[in-house]
Amino acid sequence: MSTNLDIKVKHLTRVEGHGNIVVNMKEGVLEKAQLEIVEAPRYFEAMLKGRSFHEAAIVTSRICGICSLGHQIASLKATEDALGLEVSWQTIQLRKLLTHGATLQSNILHAYFLAAPDFLNVGSVFPLIGTHPEVVVRALRMKRLANDMGDVIGGRAVHPITCVPGGFTRIPTAEELLELKRKLVEEMVPDFLATVDTMAALAGAIPQFERETEFISLRSDDEYALYDGDICSTDTGTVDDHEYRKMTNEHVVTHSSSKHCKANRSSYMVGALARFNNNHDKLCDAAKDAAEKLGLKPGCCNPYMNTIAQVVEAGHCALDSVAIIDQLLEAGLKDEQPNQEPTRFGTGIGATEVPRGILYHEYTYDRQGRMVKANCIIPTGQNLANIDDDMKKLVPEFIEKSKEEITLMLEMLVRAYDPCISCSVHMLDVDFIE
Amino acid sequence: MANKPRVAIFDFTGCEGCELNKLNFENELLDILAHVDIVEWREAMDDRVDEYDIAFVEGSLSTPDCIERIHEVRRKCKVLVSLGSCATLGGINAMKNIQPIEEVREEVYGEDKYLFPTLPALPLSAVVKVDYEVRGCPMTQIEFLKLFTALVRGQEPVKPDYAVCIECKLKENECVYEKGMICLGPVTMAGCDAHCPSFGQYCTGCRGLVTDANIAGMEEILVKHGLSVDEARKRLQLYNVNQLEGVQK
Predict the structure, then answer these.
(1) Which of B116, B182, B198, B229 to mutate to test the interface with A (most CBs of A within 10 A)?
(2) In the predicted structure, residue A223 carries a pLDDT above the cut 90
(3) Which residue in B46, B92, B234 is closest to A50 by CB distance?
(4) Which has fewest Cβ within 10 Å: A15, A268, A337, A430?
(5) What's the pTM value of the predicted model, to 2 decimals?
(6) In whole angstroms, how large is the CA radius of gyration of chain B?
(7) A22 has which bridge partners?
(8) ipTM of this predicted structure
């Protein structure tokens, strides 16, 4: 490779949304290495203003089809915090089950359909139907079951119906939960173990590249934090989720219609690898075993390993779902109505882990329960600065390789973050009035 | 249509949930693939091609680049199908259309508002000819499969033009209004099998209005059930700004 390099990948494939990779090196000096976000702005702030608290989660769910459940959860938590709505133990357990289902679905989709083709040198999952049919069928079966969890509890997996402020519009029956449990135990767990073997065989294709950075995720004393927790940074420890603005510092950059974020350094990483690094001790045993088998250790600084962390989490979600179903059935399902009588009108925060990382919604309501202000900070937006910093280290490090090889490494790097560009370009407000 | 139609899938301004619902055909995906060649789909594959028989398009048009790209898609395809509320109606994105655009942009980007161009969110049919549509937010898999099967077989797809209430009654659901909630079922185009009311939620109108919907009557019912006049209009606008306010379509 010469010391001049000019890479432009327009509308990167196998990611959610529209982004370009731009790298420019002249006589050995890196002039530019960045991910341009060219997704059309959505302007959700304009859509939410003046709307009833009943509609907030319906609207914000549409920020992203892939993360729709996560947006609903963050939205409901923000609304409930702002309006003083208490929710029951049963509601929280059902939401945790939905979160597990959505995480499983998304992690499996990414590992098998979006990332694995790179490890096998093909352009999509479709050629694999001919060459590796049993693996594709397994991936589809796992995805179907994960979506079944959303269908049964949420009414549908994409833009769920039953999750509303204060609870659920429909409680699943014991028979439905038992059937989910049976499928999780009889199908999902063996499929997960087979997935670990498949990924272990492919792991050699994961590039060896490391860059020390700050990892931020939720953290809870009670469990592997997904639904709820405090904000935890590898640099500065934990803070309450109401302090989220200090940990995000959103700002506009010219090459991206999605804003960038920073906390204690120029960039930080969120997502499966950040969760694994911060919460490894809370994983179930089968997930810990999988991590060991796949060579993933706490403190891992190789962003490409995010895909492996997603696989490890899939196992945790499957097994923890079985435990939650057991607890729900033991307590007995109650036909509760959602609690929708506000006890105050003010500002509230909802922080939750979605597959791509920590998601924040913050809402302010007036005395009629209508939205005055909204702010959402999206995982992919938080990762963008980290991706740019990775590229700036990666390109000079691998400059001896061909342009094609470097381009593929950069594409794989962006895909490893499993970016969700629709989400990151949701466009809520910048200037929150404190 | 000739054997093994060449299919391409595109996304414009939206959440990609309709596309995701296609990847969620876990049980049927392999059968679908046996009947068509998917030749271009950015979200799932690397290939890009110059022509195809059927283009499935998700998302509304909201930037100058979108307008250029949809013309290109139209030139390259024989049949164009809009998928979901955004592509068919403008969808939830269109809510910004009734607000002063400079204020909307400033609210989000502040003084950097001119960095990112934007237009009113339009349905595909406002810019190019659309041959068929699948409604819903997200589009339902059953409707997609029905349309897909009809196209592959060369049949004319059947499209309902009656209210969600009819499907809801056929399912023997308790009327949502009986539960003390409001519902947009009476003016919303059917085809979803009254999915939301069947799960205890009200119809939000995601499928667009039936032909000749009685909007004044609907607003009267909403107000009678406790909403203010302003709130009633807002609820109706959620997915139907372009239809109701005459911005487009």
Answers:
(1) B116
(2) yes
(3) B234
(4) A337
(5) 0.91
(6) 19
(7) A8, A34
(8) 0.88
